[in-house]
Amino acid sequence: MVDRATVLVLGTGELSSELVLSFQRLGVRATAVASPADAAALTALIERHEPQLVVVQSTAVDVDADVTDGLAGLDDIAVFPTPSALRLGCDREALRTLAAHELGLPTAPFWFAGSVDELTAVAEHAGLPLTVAPAANTEGAGRSVLTRLEDVDVAWHRAVAAGGDRVMAETAVDVTAEFTLLTVRTQGPAGPVVQFCEPIGRRRDNGGPLELWQPHPLSESALDVARSIAARIVNKLGGTGLFAVDLLLGTDTESSAGAEEVYFSTVHPMLTGAGFVTTRSQRLSQFDLHARAILGLPVDTIMISPAAGQVSRPSSDKAGLARALPDALAVAESDVRLSGEVCVALATAPDVVRARDRAHQVAAAINQTGK
Asked: Structure pTM?
């Protein structure tokens, strides 16, 4: 462990605040600050806080090449994730090319386009439906399913409005589930060690809230493949800390037995909102795991609750939320977190079905009373 470390977290919000608390509980001086706008602002922050460790917890830093280059040039200051991982994490095109072509990870067929005309050509060549998303890694923002050629322009503008000037078009494979594998990379006496949390299932219906649950049931073979994919991409990115690896579970239509297929989707080399569920399901939350791994302390991914559910929905009415809390927290084994403009409803239970149902009850109470 770094003795008497001072940690500077780049990025503000609930994720950064929780991470700072995890560092502070370990006796570390930690401060979260707004993401620097450029390399000069980064230099000023470093001079003011004099940290031994810098932890990036903001996608705003990812997309600013000037700041990322500045992080790479820091002397005697460790940066988490590594600047190269930051670059890849925000560049879906480079990341997907690396995963599919260099590492040979299974992915859905994909193409990239830099204009409406190029996207139209991809759609005509690949066929429909296609999933269209920003080439920048925007955690689902700007994503749409293209089912008609006449909607190419709409899909293009939705994607670029969320970030960047290029889009990824992906064959809409027969997906039976989407899940996240939180993966912790540490340094052991014999080299890097990779550990996995139980899979976190996720679902978002059109216009509905984001729902997550842990554990997501997988067959042993599918879980083994998922862990192999996660380990390979995380080891390629390098560094230490927690990585959120997003995966898809599909069915091999060419197999008479309908064998399961696991596909790599993307990886976030920092904390995401999907990991809030671990604050109730695991002995060490994603925030504790990230802090411990960065500091070189032992970690474990033990679940202390059989199951947990999470429902996240936008909410800016703080007064309404205050009125809603008594009804929401009356649900058994429930909790509520406010993350910026998002309200996170959490619940645990003896099984996933009841945990998801309780989380929905909490969210419904907030939505109803908070109006």
From this structure: 0.93
